[in-house]
Design goal:
This is non-specific serine/threonine protein kinase. Keywords: Hydrolase, Kinase, Phosphoprotein, Repeat, Transferase. By secondary structure, this protein is α/β, with parallel strands linked by helices. It is built from 14 helices and 24 strands. It has 2 domains: 226 residues, P-loop containing nucleotide triphosphate hydrolases (Rossmann fold, 3-Layer(aba) Sandwich), CATH 3.40.50.300; 244 residues, P-loop containing nucleotide triphosphate hydrolases (Rossmann fold, 3-Layer(aba) Sandwich), CATH 3.40.50. The strands form 5 sheets. It has a 9-stranded mixed sheet with strand order 5-4-6-7-3-8-9-10-11, sandwiched between helices. Strand 23 and strand 24 form a beta hairpin. The longest helix has 17 residues. The radius of gyration is 30 Å and the shape is elongated. 38% of the residues are buried.
Length: 501
């Protein structure tokens, strides 16, 4: 016996939402969009109607909560128009004073009569796409749940008989009643808004079910901006594998590349670990600008500093990052965690890699990313998935993690070394009456590396990595013991030593 052919799908007007739905909403079916007030149900429904109009489908918006003027004002705030889309309002009489198209006061009629009016209007306009806003108003008219369920079943059969795609909205005022309706729906989409202790609220959605169709499960962050609903599909790293040539990305500084065993392997993660101001960001910039000079695209995501600070600091090291950004060879993003959701951040990284072909990505710093979104419970897991994705794409990833303390007892705020293929440790140490910097590689999975500890300094014309510090013991403690000559130290002073994180 042949399998029934699945129904075709229609686009929602939100490309990334269609990606999660793997093509869109099944045509000719009844779908539920549920969420508390303010989660974005009406905006998503409007996007669906606008896409339907663009595709040549007749649309009808049936509203029991907002009148036509309110709906048009909501659409106008996004720059949208209801031209060519029908509106049928069944709202209280006193809310429509002076309007002849006012019909009934819902609390004075029975649910069956309201359903009859909706069906008659649908028969008269013969739409291919209907939005009903909202089921909570219809539920108030029902004397009991059984009669309410029966009326919704009648409406479903009527709409499916006309091959009409229908989206019904519900604000979850009666959660038990909503659960009863899930079995009648072909698809169920749940919206959620999460308030933070500080910053913008985070919105997310999930597909609870779509009968007979594949979709991407789990929660997906989304945002509503003027004129757009932006959905950020959750990342599944194993679905994004690319062929790339194994090679080493070099820094353009011979001594640093020697310390790293020739360079950083493509498709690996390097963590730059050390106290604030020791030079982690400057080393990351060294690799970024070397990639740019090779003709590759690089991406820098900063949670800590603004672009003006970055350009000032890079100029002090002889690096023209401002020109690289202007020439679109370097993608620089100021990430604001109080306004940014984890899903949106991952999507921004993906766009740099997939659209602009970034070969090196810097995240500066993990401390800010993890500490400024304390309400998020799966940030480390999301970061692990992102890093796996970047590895699969052959990207060289640099993570910056600031340790707590300056000299002596230095502690990690969080242990993320398991995510890294290479760990570069930077330290301050005291010698010859000065505070100096040391660099060493303590881990590299993809090849050999130097086991030595070297001094390095930041000068106006760039970075200098010195010879091995053979005459010192205890450098990584911050207070080394000196038992030799001072020759191994970098003595050449080519300008003011630059302090940088």
């Amino acid at each position: 016996m042949p399998h029934p052919t699945p129904p075709p799908k229609m686009k929602t007007g939100i490309p990334e939402f269609d990606l999660i739905l793997q093509g869109g909403l099944p045509v000719g079916r009844l779908h539920l969009l549920e969420g508390e007030p303010g989660t974005g149900k009406t905006t998503i429904a409007l996007q669906l109607l606008l896409q339907g109009r663009a595709d040549g489908r007749r649309g009808l918006y049936v509203t029991l909560s907002e009148d036509a003027d309110e709906l048009k004002a909501s659409a106008a705030s996004h720059g949208w128009s209801f031209d060519g889309i029908g509106i049928f309002d069944l709202i209280p009489l006193e809310a429509q004073t002076g309007r002849q198209q006012s019909i009934l006061f819902p609390s004075e009629i029975e649910l069956g009569e309201t359903m009859r009016l909706i069906i008659e209007r649908i028969e008269a306009e013969d739409p291919e796409l209907v939005v009903i806003d909202s089921l909570s108003e219809l539920r108030l008219l029902a004397q009991d749940r059984l009669s309410y369920r029966r009326q919704i079943l009648v409406l479903k059969q009527f709409l499916q008989g006309r091959r009409c795609t229908t989206l019904v909205l519900d604000d979850l005022t009666d959660r038990e009643g909503v659960k009863d309706l899930h079995s009648l729906m072909h698809g169920v989409v749940t919206l959620q808004q999460m308030e933070r202790s500080y910053g913008a609220a985070r919105r997310r959605l999930r597909i609870a079910k779509i009968r007979g169709a594949e979709y991407q499960s789990g929660w997906h962050d989304f945002a509503i901006t003027t004129g757009n609903v932006l959905v950020f599909p959750s990342l599944i790293a194993e679905q994004h594998k690319a062929d790339f040539e194994p090679s080493l990305a070099q820094s353009g500084l011979q001594e640093l590349d020697s310390l790293m065993g020739g360079g950083l392997a493509r498709g690996t993660v390097t963590m730059l670990l050390g106290p604030s101001g020791v030079g982690k960001s400057s080393i990351a910039l060294q690799y970024v600008m070397a990639a740019v000079n090779r003709g590759e695209h690089a991406a820098y995501f900063s949670f800590d500093e603004g672009f003006a600070t970055l350009t000032q600091r890079s100029s002090a090291l002889g690096m023209d990052t401002e020109r690289a950004v202007r020439d679109k060879r370097l993608g620089w993003t100021r990430a604001n965690p109080s306004r940014l959701s984890p899903g949106e951040f991952v999507w921004q990284v993906r766009r740099e890699v997939e659209d602009r072909k970034a070969r090196i990505v810097v995240i500066d710093s993990l401390n800010s990313y993890l500490s400024t979104m304390p309400e998020e419970s799966a940030l480390v897991l999301q970061m692990h998935e992102l890093l796996t994705y970047l590895n699969n794409q052959g990207v060289v990833t640099l993570l910056i993690l600031a340790q707590q303390g300056i000299i002596g007892d230095i502690q990690n705020p969080v242990d993320l070394s398991f995510m890294s293929d290479t760990v570069v440790l930077l330290r301050f140490f005291e010698a010859a009456g000065e505070v100096r910097k040391a660099i060493s590689v303590v881990k590299k999975r993809t090849g050999v590396h130097e086991l030595s500890i070297r001094e390095f300094r930041l000068f106006p014309d760039g970075m200098q990595v010195g010879p091995r510090l053979m005459d010192f013991r205890g450098i990584l403690t911050g207070v080394p013991e000196y038992d030799g000559s001072a020759e191994p130290l970098l003595r050449e002073q080519r300008g003011t030593d630059t302090q940088s994180g």
